[in-house]
Amino acid sequence: MRLTALFVARNGRQFLTQLMNREVRNYQFDFLKPQHSSFPYFTKLVEQYTKVIIPAKNVVDELKATSSPQTILDDVRYRVGWEKWQKAQRDRETAEVEQERMAYAQIDWHDFVVVQTVDFQVG
Asked: Is 77 left (phi over 0), alpha (psi -120 to 50) or beta?
């Protein structure tokens, strides 16, 4: 699916139309049909690949005019650091939840004894 999206982004919608016509009976290309559950994901991939392969002119001009390569690298390093920090936070939260789950799993709930029953009177 990703490779097909890359080729569609590179070669255009006409390529997609030709591919759909040629592979109409091939089940591996069912995601090309709009009613398929993976079609939105495929179209999003095509959109993202197109943005990378053929960037908008104003984006390229803005990068050339306002940023030096060092500034861009600094921004990328900052973003990578932020992503690592967020992943560490998520991993820590996941570990805490897993540790709590394991603690509950170790309790033998059938080992308890009924000591007393309390009856509530209606009235």
From this structure: alpha
